[in-house]
């Protein structure tokens, strides 16, 4: 929310911020770097965000308290009583609509490891994912891994162990440094 403007969606918010507050821009000015940034942003949404979300919900939906704490954060007072009644139906619908099951969670972890490999390879040759300065691609990468360095949003235990197994990878180290440097008041 910015004044009377309400913008939803990470990509839309970054584009809005670039138009409203152009310095420093999150979208590179150079057309080649801009194209690379958008490409990485889409890739990360599909290959980091979606599988992380699936792994999270696979575990969280099995734990009513964890799911409740996550899904009702910031909800109005009446959310709790309503949620208590609809939770079984909500859980079933989420599992069906999001294809949340043991097989899809296993495939998602495999996809995450392949994505980490690709990011390790890219960052072995570049300081940032797109261009010579921090961009929307870097913000997307670090933000999608927020469970790795946020005490406010803990990951389910098995996902937390998976994250811990990969925290020494170059990509994770880079993302933690990006998160710390570019997110005010944060400490991974």
How does this model look, in words?
This protein is an all-alpha fold and 188 residues long. 65% of the residues lie in helices and 0% in strands.
List key phrases describing it.
188 residues; mainly alpha; 8 helices
Oligomer kind: single chain
Question: What is the overall number of helices?
Answer: 8
Helix-strand string: HHHHHHHH
Strand content is under 5%
Helix content: 55-70%
Based on CA inertia axes, which overall geometry fits?
globular
* Number of DSSP E strands: 0
Write the layout of secondary structure elements.
Blueprint: H1 10-20, H2 31-60, H3 64-71, H4 79-97, H5 102-123, H6 136-144, H7 157-166, H8 170-182
Q: What does this entry show, briefly?
A:
Helices cover 65% and strands 0% of the residues. By secondary structure, the chain is an all-alpha fold.
């Amino acid at each position: 929310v910015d004044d009377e403007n309400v913008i939803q969606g990470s990509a839309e918010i970054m584009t809005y911020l670039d138009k409203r507050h152009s310095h420093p821009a999150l979208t590179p000015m150079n057309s080649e770097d801009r194209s690379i940034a958008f490409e990485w942003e889409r890739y990360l949404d599909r290959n980091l965000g979606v599988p992380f979300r699936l792994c999270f919900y696979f575990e969280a939906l099995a734990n009513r308290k964890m799911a409740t704490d996550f899904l009702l954060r910031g909800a109005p007072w009446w959310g709790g009583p309503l949620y208590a009644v609809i939770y079984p139906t909500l859980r079933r619908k989420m599992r069906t609509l999001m294809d949340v099951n043991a097989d899809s969670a296993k495939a998602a972890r495999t996809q995450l490891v392949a994505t980490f490999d690709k990011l390790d390879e890219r960052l072995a040759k570049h300081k940032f994912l797109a261009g010579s300065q921090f961009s929307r691609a870097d913000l997307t990468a670090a933000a999608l891994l927020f469970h790795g360095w946020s005490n406010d949003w803990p990951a389910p235990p098995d996902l937390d162990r998976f994250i811990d197994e990969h925290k020494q990878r170059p990509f994770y180290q880079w993302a933690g440094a990006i998160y710390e440097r570019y997110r005010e008041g944060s400490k991974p």
